[in-house]
Model the fold of this input.
Amino acid sequence: MTTKYNPYKNSILGRGNGILKNEFFISDSKMSKSEIQRIVDQSIYIYNNERPHLSCKMMTPCQAHIKRK
Done:
């Protein structure tokens, strides 16, 4: 966590948290810790391997990384 009201301290983490909350709906405090962990792990996989990104010219991060090599 960073200082309250200072989004520039860790913008990458803030974006990641926003994606988890808004795209993968991980904001329900009634979820168990193991359920949240399972969803986070699954979300990271989808984000890196299945979700195309504008910043990667509509490739997944994994595809962009392989192409860069």
DSSP finds three helices and no strands in the chain. The CA atoms of residues 16 and 66 lie 22 Å apart.
